[in-house]
Amino acid sequence: MLIAKKLDRKIHRLEKKLARQQKDSKRRNASHLQIAKLHNEIADIRTDFLHKLSTKIVNENQVIVLEDFKVSGMVNNRKLARAINQLAMV
User: Fold this and answer.
1) What pLDDT sits at residue 90?
2) How many angstroms separate the CA atoms of 35 and 15, rounded?
3) Which is it for the CA torsion 75, 77, 82, 86, positive or negative?
4) When comparing pLDDT for 88 and 89, which is higher?
5) What pLDDT was estimated at residue 72?
6) Which domain holds residue 21?
7) Whose CA is closest to 39, among 68, 14, 73, 17?
8) Is 23 part of any domain?
9) Domain tally, the chain
10) CB atoms within 10 A of CB 42
């Protein structure tokens, strides 16, 4: 998940840059597209990790038990929200 953290910082920097750009300009549209691509890349990294992890768990264990969390309430906590979302629990 270290790669996702680096990309998250890059998105933060690009969004600050986007906020300072003039609206409806070509550069702003290009920056917006670049940010969307980074968001997509992070989503792909997370789904890939979840697929690999779930496959590993299924192959190594005979019994799997699921626990239901109230994630929506946990995400409301501002200090924990980013960490919980990065764990892809939502």
Assistant:
1) 42
2) 7
3) negative
4) 88
5) 76
6) 2-62
7) 14
8) yes
9) 1
10) 20
Residue 54: alpha-carbon gap to chain centroid = 18
Is 88 a domain residue?
no
| pTM strictly above 0.85 | no
pLDDT by residue (tens digit) across 35-77? 999 999 988 888 888 899 889 998 998 888 888 777 778 888 8
**Residue corresponding to tokens 């600050």:** 16
| The pair of three-digit structure tokens given for residue 52, joined into one six-digit string | 């690999």
pLDDT score for 53: 87
Contacts (Cβ under 8 Å, ≥6 apart) of 57: 64
- Domain contains 74: no
Q: Cβ(90)–Cβ(84) under 8 Å?
A: yes
Distance of CA 69 to the CA centre of its chain: 19
Q: Which two tokens stand for residue 36?
A: 């969307």
Q: Kindly state whether residue 21 falls inside one of the protein's structural domains.
A: yes
Q: Which residues contact 77 (CB under 8 A, 6 or more apart)?
A: none
pLDDT at 89 over 70: no
